[in-house]
Design goal:
With 74 residues, the chain is mostly helical. It has four helices and no strands. The protein has helices at 8-19, 23-30, 34-41, 49-64.
Amino acid sequence: MAGKKRDIGAFLKEIRSQLDLSQEALARELGVSFSTVNRWENGQYKPSRLALSHLDSFCKKMVKQGKLNLKERP
């Protein structure tokens, strides 16, 4: 997941777009609420270290399965 850092909101939107997931579906995958993902995407809050760890694990799993192509990460 190495690369140039970018905005977490844009990163989450890119993940959701590639995986065709709603905010609610991504929230379920990460073990957080829909409103949490919504607030992250809208820049109201930043994910905690634990949430970022879960997001990183999820992304690695999706990349390994060939479902996600990431060039950058937040």
